[in-house]
Amino acid sequence: MEYLLVSACLLGQAVRYNGGDKRVDHELLVRWLAEGRVLPFCPEVAGGLPVPRLPAEIQGPGGGLAVLEGRRRVRDKAGVDVTAAFVEGASQALALARENGVRVAVMKEGSPSCGSSYSYDGSFSGSRLAVPGVATALLRQAGVQVFSESELAEADALLRRIEAGQI
Predict the structure, then answer these.
(1) Which residue in 34, 37, 32, 40 sits closest to 14, CA to CA?
(2) Where exactly are the structural domains of the chain?
C-alpha cells in the first residue's frame, strides 16, 4: 500500500498560523484515511513554530527552492526571520516521506511551506507568485509528486497507477 503525506490542516488539525484548520471533507480523503494510508504532517509546527503564530511569507521571488538554496528568507508579518523553522519542517517532512516510501503528497495550496503551484510574495498584500513553498520544493527535489487540495482526483489517479505497477 502506498502512503500519502497530507497537510495536517486539511485533515482538520488546528495547526494553521491563526489557530484554525482548512479541513477538506472529500470522499477521497475519507477513503484514504479509512485505508490507513494518510500520514498527517505540518511542516511549520514540526519546525518549531507555535500555534497560533504570525503569518509568514517567503520574501521575494524564487519560492521554496530559493529558500532552500539560501537565496531568500521567510519572515513573519512582524519581520522576524523564521527561515530556520521552515527549512527544519521541510527536512522533517522529507524524512517522514523517505521512512514511509511516500511518492505522493497532498499539501495546502498557498502556504509558504506547502503551496504547490503558488505562494505569496512576501509583501503580505495577497500577491501571489507561481512558485512552491519550502516543504513542497524539498519534497519535489526528492521525487515526491505534490498535489494541492484541489487536485485530489489527480493524486488518486497517480496512486492507482503506482499500485498497478504502471510507474
Answers:
(1) 40
(2) 4-163
